[in-house]
Amino acid sequence: MRRRKRRVSRPSHDRWLVSYADFITLLFAFFVVLYSTAQVDRKKVAALSSAIQTAFQQLGANPATINPTTSQDFTDIHIALPVSATTPIDQPRDLTGLRKELEQALAPEILRGDVALRMGRDGLVISLREVGFFESGSAGVKAASQPAFSRIAKLLGEGQYNIRIEGHTDNVRIHNLQYSSNWELSTSRSTEMIRLLVVKYGLDPQRLSASGYGEYHPIASNATEAGRALNRRVDLVVLGKHEAEPAKNQLQENLP
Q: Strand 233-239 relative to strand 163-168: parallel, antiparallel, unpaired?
């Protein structure tokens, strides 16, 4: 009998096609992902534009100019930065008229020295002093000052103003169970004011901003008790165009 020859299997030289096809598929998927991530939603660009404009307004600056409809690429967004972050912005009502209304509405509080009004660098400053609105070392607004604060909130809400709320303290260190520094107390007071304006009086939160300066922006000397009392305050800065008062007049208004 003849023996059958065994067929020797040789390796296929076409197996590289499988790896090549997998590589091409992965490469295609990679470029698809790159393309999809490069596409920006127009609504998201518009939201970004609105957020930047609001931020500049709250800082007292001219709103940024953004045109999100020209292209879907972020590289085509042009932002016109303001010359100065303290440049006043246009307001729907005159700040001089608002000041007169506040002087009439807050006449008793101004006479007692609980409230002071002045024209500052960025706009009309409504200074709420601690003696009339806060307990020492606390951020909660006194119940007795709620009627005065309601009158302020009503006038500000009617005008749709952009307002920056600043908390200030004297240089006496605070150490209680709630606050460990004047930074915390000043910031807590300003944010509490915003909470009241938004929750209780319905002001637009996009028009409000809060900051705390501790003892580092005094308006009087901390060497005397009278000066420290003036420095313990929360300033509601109504942003707008105005003519700033001379420093001498502002100093006279700060005196009790």
A: antiparallel
- Pair (122, 178) in one structural domain: yes
| Residues 116 and 80 grouped into a single domain | no
Rounded to an integer, what distance in angstroms lies between the CA atom of residue 64 and that of residue 79?
6
Residues in the chain: 256
Locate 32 and state its tokens: 């698809």
Order the strands of the 163-168 sheet from edge to edge: 115-119, 123-129, 233-239, 163-168, 208-212
CATH number at residue 185: 3.30.1330.60
For residue 63, what are the domain limits? 15-84
Name the 3-class secondary structure at 94.
coil
- Write the pLDDT tens digit of every residue in 221-242: 999 999 999 999 999 999 986 5
The whole-model pTM stands at: 0.60
